[in-house]
Specification:
heterodimer, A: alpha+beta, 4-stranded antiparallel beta sheet, 11 strands, B: mainly alpha, 3-stranded antiparallel beta sheet, 5 helices, elongated
Chain lengths: 336, 121
């Protein structure tokens, strides 16, 4: 498929959501009770009711807005590598809103009393799964920008591995500021928890009041963010015949891996976090996906059919050289 | 840290691994306090037996370059930090000996360089 055909297909998938919802509305609107059920309990009994016209108009409008926004994102392409994931999220939203209104209208169709309309969690699951499938298709179909890396690096690697020779490169990078930030946040959060506990024990406010609850939740959020920052403060990277593998924070799981057969070429460069969407594990930054623990040296991998992938690591030059040597060795082994 | 091993080489695999680590200590890629990857991971990446890597690590430990501790893995010792200076000092010593030998033969600097180039063009 040409990039133009891919874009057209993505726009079609996006616009299909509000159009389908509109078709359902046109087909059902003359046989609906007023109000209709628009929210259900888990067991399928409705517990929320709205007038059908306003509800349908609102939901279809949101779905249409998401579809238009998504179409703009994939058409102008100025989000570059981020276009795919952004369009995917917009497609999911468009389809979930369209699915929600479609489900409500179909459940209400021909029902005299809104209380008799049946829906429930199984319908929600179907709507969400359809949304996810479409979102994934949109993400994968959105054309990716050409890589910033010259694939010639593979044709002319700094050195060649002789047939049968094996090689491994291991490196790491870490950021003290990120670790410190994480530890401070965990400390502040823990302090918040202690305050909540103390206040509750002393009976200054009765347990379960709203102030109590919001402080508790904020404290937990701060702790989680702090732990995430601390987790992302260091990275270990390994390059070998299987590809490039990275681990964050010295823990063995999760492993981030780019298989060798998916790598086109590699280059060492100074990684600017904002070009890749920030710190930590990023998907859909302007230039692609990335594992960033700090600003500075990193290895950027050009991948077949996917956006570039950047990994911050010290001594990235040697890592990139080995990746290119391995890719080149793999290609020549396949050629013979 | 980069390690390349060639099974076709007459040098044993463990010696190749130890040699590459020594070389990177000498050129400063590896420094005191650095941790080497677990032997199992390295063996897996290089597609060699884990005992081969352990043999290389043990050799470096015997030279005082590596500290092996259960659970903490392999760490470059402080003493290994002196390796570059030691190697540079040894090289300077050998150069001085070479210059002495050249002087005995009455060779000028240029003639000595020409002799060196004859050996390794």
């Amino acid at each position: 498929m040409t990039p133009l055909q891919r874009r057209a297909l993505v726009v079609l998938l996006l616009v299909l959501a509000p159009v389908a919802a509109l078709v359902v509305w046109l087909a059902t609107h003359d046989a609906l009770p007023d109000p209709i059920a628009t929210h259900w309990q888990l067991d399928g009994d409705p517990d929320g009711f709205t007038s059908p016209g306003g509800f349908a108009a609102g939901m279809i409008a949101v779905s249409a807005a998401m579809a238009v926004l998504g179409s703009v994102v994939v058409t102008i392409g100025s989000f570059r590598a981020g276009s795919g994931p952004i369009a995917g999220v917009l497609a999911w939203t468009a389809w979930v809103f369209a699915g929600g209104v479609g489900d409500a209208l179909l459940s209400a169709h021909g029902v005299a009393d809104a209380h008799d309309a049946r829906s429930g969690w199984s319908h929600s699951v179907v709507v969400i799964v359809i949304g996810l499938v479409v979102a994934l298709a949109v993400w994968r179909l959105t054309p990716i920008p050409p890589s910033s890396i010259d694939a010639a690096a593979v044709a002319e690697p700094s050195y060649r591995l002789s047939p049968g020779e094996r090689a491994v490169w291991v490196g790491s990078a870490s950021s003290r500021p990120l670790l410190r930030t994480g530890m401070v946040l965990v400390g502040v959060g823990t302090l918040g928890l202690a305050v909540v506990a103390l206040v509750t024990v002393l009976g200054v406010v009765s347990p379960g009041t709203s102030t109590d609850g919001s402080v508790l939740i904020s404290a937990l959020v701060v702790i989680v963010v702090g732990l995430a920052a601390a987790w992302c403060h260091s990275i270990t990277v390994r390059v070998d015949a299987t590809g490039v593998t990275a681990r964050l924070g010295g823990v063995p799981w999760p492993r981030f891996r780019v298989p060798l057969e998916r790598i086109e070429a590699a280059r060492a460069e100074l990684v600017e976090p904002m070009q890749w969407g920030g710190w930590g594990y990023r998907v859909g930054g302007r230039r692609g996906s990335a594992l960033v623990v700090r600003k500075g040296q990193g290895i950027v991998l050009a991948r077949h059919g996917r956006p570039d992938f950047a990994i911050t690591v010290d001594d990235a030059e040697r890592a990139a050289e080995l990746v290119n040597a391995l890719v080149s060795a793999r290609l020549s082994a396949r050629a013979t | 840290m980069l390690i390349r091993v060639d099974p076709a080489s007459p040098t044993g695999l463990a010696e190749q691994i130890a040699g590459q680590i020594r070389g990177q200590l000498a050129d400063g890629t590896l420094a005191p306090g650095d941790r080497l990857p677990p032997a199992r991971d390295l063996a897996h990446s290089l597609d060699v037996n884990m005992h081969t890597v352990l043999r290389a690590y043990a050799a470096l430990r015997d030279e005082g370059l590596l500290e092996l501790r259960r659970g903490r893995g392999a760490q470059i010792t402080q003493a290994a930090g002196e390796l570059p200076t030691t190697l540079a000092a040894r090289l300077h010593e050998q150069i001085r000996a070479l210059l002495g030998a050249a002087a005995e033969l009455g060779l000028t600097r240029e003639q000595l360089l020409a002799e060196i180039r004859k050996v390794t063009p």
